[in-house]
Fold this sequence. Notes:
By secondary structure, this protein is mostly helical. Among the domains are: 117-378, no CATH class; 439-580, Rossmann fold (3-Layer(aba) Sandwich). Helix content is 59%, strand content 4%. The chain contains 25 helices and four strands. Strands 1-2-4-3 form a four-stranded mixed beta sheet, covered by helices on one side. Helix 3 (59-72) packs across helix 4 and helix 9 (219-241) packs antiparallel against helix 11.
Amino acid sequence: MNAGLDQDAAAQAAVSEEPLLETKLHPRWALAPWHLLLVAFWCLFFYLVNSFPLRETDLWGHVAYGSWIVEHRTLPVEDPFQPLSEGMTVIDSAWLSQLLLYGLQAVGGGEALSTLFALVTLAMYGLLGLAFLYQSRDLVLAHLGVVLVLVVGWSRISTIRPENFGTLLFAVLLWLIVTSGQSEPGVAPRRTGGKRVPWRLWIGVPLVMCLWANLHGSFACGLALLGCMFAGAVVEAAWRTRRLGGVWTDPDVRRWLWLGELAVLGTLINPYGMDVLLYTLVFSVNTNLHEISEWQALELIDTGGPAFSMSLILLMVAFRHSRRRIPAAHVILLLVFAVAVVRGVRMIWWYGAIWGMVVVPHLADIWRQIQPRWWRRWSRYRGTSLRGWWGLPIGRAWSYSLVSLLILWIALAVSPTGKSLLGDDPRPSRYLYSDSTPWQVTEYLRENPPQGQVFNPQWWGDWLVWDGPPGLQVFVTTNVHLLPRQTWTDYRVIRETRSGWANVMDRYAVQTAVLDKHKQTVLLGYLRNATEWRLMYQDDVAAVFRRVEGARMPKTADRTTELFVPASAAEARERSRTASD
């Protein structure tokens, strides 16, 4: 009997001595229920952005430029893919982006580009969320700000191009300014209790601008941001001191002046030096660009218009009911970037980011005014270990951390990036590329390379250069700012089938025409019925015509509107200069 008791005691002692799983992580890694919602939000966001198809934008022209730079080990001085812009000097401000895009394309194909776009977009909105969290001190309001910026700039989110690196660095710049307590000149930072600027701002601003000036020409938006902050500090100091001397001695004014000077110096560290800055300043006034939809003025009933109107209405409501002071810098920022959007709809995202930084603190103040008592009472107890209706803890628990990891794994496993990492086949072309991308046309052109000049839609030029046969002589790409004015006018005459279009086709000796079946229906109908042209290929997106050997276009153009087509780009520039004089 005693022996049996001794054996039971020994067994219990052995069981008690067995090692148990114990949590070694810091308790802060234990998550709460609302953290699950945040994890699910960002996982869903990544999945959606990663699932966007690659469009036929200037992305492919930049990839082609990256390939050319690697092959020739130098930067181009002329456009190597647009023959009709021969003689026009190229300032390649996106050379670093082009190398990065081409490197990823060479390693992982289109899926690698899609992954890069998803990660850059995720980081961009994540940094904005951190800046909004610093301003509002509330996770819900910070994510509300992210959603609002997403809605305002939705018309630009699916466009993959080097500009995405610019928007990321713009978000980095906003995050540096906000978290350094410098987003409101004249107000002391909360954390430091004074006006001393953290070193990360002094170091971060020139580094960001230096990198930005080599990635994309949109670094001018960063300079505009810093310039507006300086102007706001000047207005605040002038109002506070009521004298000119007080403006210069104000520490905020001098601080933003020095930061602006460091930013300008940072942009000069590039292969072109001062030329990049000068080129960026004159680039946006190019006449050819403003005849493209994304460079045209904002229309309230068109792309971006409703979102822009909504943002203004919400901004007025927030200013009306908020008790927070409105800094002069915020007013100047809103005015400058709103005017930029009105002049060109492609600026809608940049405005949205500034708008979010301005409006979130006021929304936070309004929320604290209307916050009910039960919400405050619940906030006191939401970190406790009370059990909910389903037997789940209301406060922090390791079970929520495990569920969050499961959500992350599911999001990665079902996303195109995750499938590629797990060894699954990449998406087929019909899913990887957008419905309007003529990937089937370039397959045909590679098998049947056209000879001589090709007429093509401007929006397909970059794709044809990248995916078409080597040496394809496209008429125009997205680098329309490099085309002589007369050549761009001639392109529009053909594209819009204006009077004289047949003579223009003949004079440029166009041998092949690649047409968008959905956007060039009139020209498509003319060529279908013309005996001088033969339909060689068509699908749901495009049609390819080739001139019958020895045939010439009939002289059907109105002689009073006949257009002169120069033999070279230099002659076109001379004619354009003479006409303008």
